[in-house]
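TODO from last week: model Diacylglycerol kinase family protein.
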Amino acid sequence: MPEQTRTAAIIVNPVKVDEPALREALAAAEQRHGWGETMWIETTEDDPGAGQAREALDRGADVVIAAGGDGTVRTVAEALQGTGVPLALLPSGTGNLLARNLNLTLDDVENALDSAFGGDDRSIDVGVVELRDGDGRTRKHSYLVMAGVGIDAQMIAATDDDLKARHGWLAYVKAIGTVLRDKNELRLRYELDKKGVHSVRAHTVLIGNCGSLPANILLLPEAAVDDGEFDIVVLRPEGFIGWVQIAVKVFWENGILRRTTVGRRLMGADREVRAMNYLKGREFVMRLNRPQEVDLDGDLFGRASALRTWVDPLSLIVKVPRTS
């Protein structure tokens, strides 16, 4: 009995892609790898990918390709989580956060499609979060890279969308200046892996499944996408000196020294700075003194007064370049 032809589905944010060029590249990749015609499914303003991913699964797709920004990737991944159907990435946005953390090639459609049709499978962790509003209602979402409360989310809220479309991540520079003029202090209580409640004052809390951000920023140097744990950083600078400590830690130690053997020797023993505390665990619960903006993988998800987040280990399969 002949082997059944495999079929992919591509979920496309039509604003982010060149449709004629992508359709041509798809046809060439299908021929190279012996796959059937790919299902073409577009996102809409009302549905950024969830319904489209469910449609792809219902139609029997063997792999689902997300062609869009971080929001499209996150939404499609949430639908594929735990299904065993692989997610392939065709990076098309500003951040491309998951692709960067998996060291995938950016701006190379042919390479991305070769990975989708003929690459290896890699299982990665997914973060799941329950957000509680001030009136007690809860919302549940998944994320792949990072959840943030504080300056991180406020910076995204303050970013000019038109400026971001024209200049990419440089648009955040203006937003950072706007946000830092405010004290942005949060009072919160947190519990990590049910090991006791801690009260702190902080400016930002970031819960990471991955560690790298655009512009070569290594925020969470020990984070791994498949280790079954979160890496968490609490930023609590006190004035200008505190921000200098954070900048030195992130941009100099993490961004430059840690990346080379010589640099790691120069660093010596890893040391925390007062303004920046690292944590690691599988479940993190946080209660805030007042509702705050929350972002997941670079998109805002409204205000929450509390959140509970946990790791769903190795629950998503991602296509990566073939190694042999």
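Done. The two ends are 28 Å apart (CA to CA).
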